């Protein structure tokens, strides 16, 4: 209880700091295009920032692999949040500002099960492989984790066995891995831990074993022609602040 009270006081202090350092008395709209892996964390963090700064944060949600397509198609925003390599590529192509990449959070691939399904053994890579082979059906997102997992199945020598079990969907809020598991469409489901941890009616078993894990560093890049560049930088500083870390961790992410 005391720890929660201290955390609330610290968060209040940082939000007061944001309000005191606002660059203008007039509110601004900061537009962000963000990977959906950050959905729950941003939904809790952004109202805190908005209340403190007086600014409004508008978010365009996208599967992680699709964020760059939004940017390259000319969708206007101030910040793009996607995997670090994607930010670097957009900087190289001239869409995002040189030197603007800021790592925000680290994200792990997780595995969840439908109610009543056998729990996979995640103690090591060998037991994980056995659990994959034993599963009757597996759901995967259409995001960054699925690309890595298909390569991993190849490396493990089980790609052919997996092909007949995989269900891959469009990775929208209406049709995500958790929904597939809840309706009994698969025994196991893979997605970023942050996209599974807050879902009801499923069981998050944990991250896949460290030996076969891939860490995604979700990073922010500032648009080269951002209309609210200074306000956007202030928002990024808030996300990076120690005071925001507790909310980020709560939703299955690690601050970078």
Kindly provide the radius of gyration, computed on alpha-carbon positions and rounded to a whole number of angstroms. 19 Å
In the CATH hierarchy, the third-tier topology of the largest domain is known as: D-Maltodextrin-Binding Protein, domain 2
> What is the level 1 CATH name of the largest domain?
Alpha Beta
- How far do the termini sit from each other? 27 Å
Main sheet specs: 6 strands, mixed
Spatial strand sequence of the major β-sheet = 2-1-3-10-4-11
Task: Give the count of structural domains.
Answer: 2
Task: Estimate the strand proportion.
Answer: 15-25%
Strand pairing plus helix content: what structural class?
A: alpha/beta
Mean pLDDT: 89
Assign the CATH superfamily of the largest domain: Periplasmic binding protein-like II
Based on DSSP secondary structure assignment, what is the total number of beta strands?
11
Shape: elongated
> What's the CATH architecture name of the largest domain?
3-Layer(aba) Sandwich
Succession of helices and strands? HEHEHEHEEHEHHEHEHEEHHE
Quaternary state reads single chain
Ordered list of secondary-structure elements with their pairings:
Elements lengths: L1 H19 L8 E7 L3 H15 L2 E7 L4 H6 L6 E5 H9 L9 E6 L1 E5 L11 H10 L3 E3 L3 H13 L2 H5 L2 E3 L8 H6 L5 E5 H4 L6 E5 L8 E7 L6 H12 L1 H9 L3 E2 L1
Parallel strand pairs: 1-2, 1-3, 6-7, 6-8
Antiparallel strand pairs: 3-10, 4-10, 4-11, 5-8, 5-9
Helix pairs in contact: 1-2, 2-11
General description of the model:
This protein is of the alpha/beta class. The protein has 2 domains: 2-107 and 216-255, 3-Layer(aba) Sandwich (D-Maltodextrin-Binding Protein, domain 2); 109-212, 3-Layer(aba) Sandwich (D-Maltodextrin-Binding Protein, domain 2), CATH 3.40.190. The chain has 11 helices and 11 strands. It has a 6-stranded mixed sheet with strand order 2-1-3-10-4-11, with helices on both faces. A 5-stranded mixed sheet has the order 7-6-8-5-9. It is elongated and about 60 Å long. The two termini are 27 Å apart. Mean pLDDT is 89; it is low at 1-6 and 19-24.
């Amino acid at each position: 209880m005391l720890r929660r009270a201290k955390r609330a006081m610290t968060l209040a202090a940082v939000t007061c700091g944001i309000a005191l350092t606002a660059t203008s008395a007039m509110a601004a709209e900061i537009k962000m295009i963000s990977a959906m892996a950050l959905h729950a964390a941003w939904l809790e963090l952004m109202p805190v920032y908005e209340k403190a700064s007086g600014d409004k944060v508008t978010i365009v949600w996208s599967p992680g692999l699709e964020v760059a397509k939004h940017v390259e198609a000319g969708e206007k925003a101030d910040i793009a949040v996607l995997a670090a390599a994607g930010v670097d590529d957009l900087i190289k192509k001239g869409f995002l500002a040189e030197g603007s990449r800021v790592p925000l959070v680290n994200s792990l691939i997780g595995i969840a099960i439908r109610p009543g399904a056998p729990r996979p053994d995640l103690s090591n890579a060998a037991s994980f492989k056995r659990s994959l082979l034993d599963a009757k059906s597996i759901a995967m997102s259409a995001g960054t984790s699925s690309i890595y997992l298909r390569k991993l199945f190849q490396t493990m020598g089980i790609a052919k066995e997996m092909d007949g079990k995989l269900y891959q969907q469009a990775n929208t809020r209406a049709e995500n891995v958790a929904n597939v598991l809840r309706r009994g469409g698969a025994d196991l489901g893979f997605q970023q831990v942050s996209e599974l941890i807050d879902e009801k009616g499923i069981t998050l078993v944990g991250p896949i074993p460290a030996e076969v894990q891939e860490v995604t560093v979700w990073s922010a890049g500032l648009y080269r022609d951002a209309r609210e560049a200074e306000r956007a930088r202030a928002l990024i500083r808030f996300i990076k602040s120690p005071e925001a870390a507790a909310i980020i961790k709560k939703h299955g992410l690690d601050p970078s």
